[in-house]
Amino acid sequence: MAMSFDQYMRDMIQPMRDELTTLGIRELRTPEEVEENLPNATGTTLVVINSVCGCAAGQCRPGVAQALQHEKTPNNLFTVFAGQDKEATAQAREYFAPYPPSSPSIALFKDGELVHFIERHSIEDRSAGDIADDLTRAFDEFCG
Q: Is 117 exposed, middle or buried (0-12, 13-18, 19+ CB in 10 A)?
């Protein structure tokens, strides 16, 4: 019995999704879920743009995991998966202006305003610890 390509991709990326959802980060899989959550989030909100690439696996997701061990963390935690949940990712990116699309990337909002953004080029050549340090400095500045 042959497996469909879509099923194969779902099976392959599920562990990449799980790395974030097991941390308590909620996936936004549709544009409607993005619109129900991002504009209405109060306090601080972290949005991780997940990806299948090596820098997402080696630096981004582990850096986010380390940062979320910090004493100050955002009130709301969301993720969209670039290349998989394309419409949700496109909708979330509407809130990241003036930054161009970048996967992976990490956005921090305070009361709906984008206050910190880490683009792919600031992830791929840094360690997970460096990304965690970057995020925890932002958490200290913006999270209550």
A: middle
Catalytic site residues?
Answer: 53, 55
Measured between alpha carbons, how far is 119 from 100 in angstroms, rounded to an integer?
A: 9
Query: Parallel, antiparallel, or unpaired: how do β-strands 76-81 and 44-50 relate?
Result: parallel
SS3 26: strand
Q: Please give the Cα distance from 42 to 53 (Å, whole number).
A: 31
> 9 φ, ψ to 5°?
-65, -40
Angle at 21 between CA 73 and CA 30, to 5 degrees: 105
Non-local CB neighbours of 105 within 8 Å, separated by 6+ positions: 48, 49, 96, 99, 117, 118, 119, 120, 123
Residue 1: band (very low, low, confident or very high) from pLDDT cuts 50, 70, 90: low
- Give tens-digit pLDDT for 89-138: 999 999 999 999 999 999 999 999 999 999 999 999 999 999 999 999 99
Could you tell me the two tokens for 25? 């980060």
